[in-house]
Amino acid sequence: RPVRTLEKPLAERPVKLGEIRYSVMGIRTGIASVVGSHGDWLPKGQYVRLRIALMNEGRDRHRFEPLRQLLIGSDGRTYKISNDAMNIDRQPVGVLSIARDERREFDLWFDIPKNIEPQRLRVLGDSTSSALGEQLKGPSPGAKNTTDISLS
């Protein structure tokens, strides 16, 4: 899929967590400010914007919380979503309910130090299954609810 001006397209390497397939379509680093119809904001370091896609491949609705996602930098640290940038760019910040066969695309904004390169997106998502056998067994102990997507 085409990406926006100044975005670097990323090879399609989807990962699955439960019944949701996640992929990062494009990345833009070194953004000096975020501007919206109702405000603008400067980062403490640099803004990094990731264009992501989610696809529910199950039968049931699944939850996704954009503000829980993390960016892992070249320093090994994790960085949280920039709530200010997400709101100014009018990206979803509340809990999303992803319906059966639904695909959603939106941006995730992070504010990281200028000298750090983004390495991976750590997705925190819904690992439940709509398969009857899985629902009858209940959640397995230690069920994984995170997965990483490479940004290189």
Which short descriptors sum up this protein?
152 residues, mainly beta, five-stranded antiparallel sheet, four-stranded antiparallel sheet, 2 helices, 45% strand, globular
Structural class by helix and strand composition = mainly beta
Shape: globular
Head-to-tail CA distance between termini? 17 Å
Number of separate helices = 2
As a whole number of angstroms, the C-alpha radius of gyration is: 16 Å
Element order: H for helix, E for strand: EEEEEEEEEHEEEHE
Detail the poorly predicted runs.
none
Can you give the mean pLDDT?
Answer: 91
What is the number of beta strands? 13
Biggest pleated-sheet summary: 5 strands, antiparallel
Protein architecture, described:
By secondary structure, this protein is mainly beta. Helix content is 8%, strand content 45%. The chain contains 2 helices and 13 strands, in the order βββββββββαβββαβ. The strands form 4 sheets. Strands 1, 2, 3, 6 and 11 form a 5-stranded antiparallel β-sheet that branches. A 4-stranded antiparallel β-sheet has the order 9-8-12-13, with no helix packed on it. β8 (70-73) and β9 (78-80) form a beta hairpin. The radius of gyration is 16 Å and the shape is globular. The chain starts with 7 loop residues before the first strand and ends with a strand.
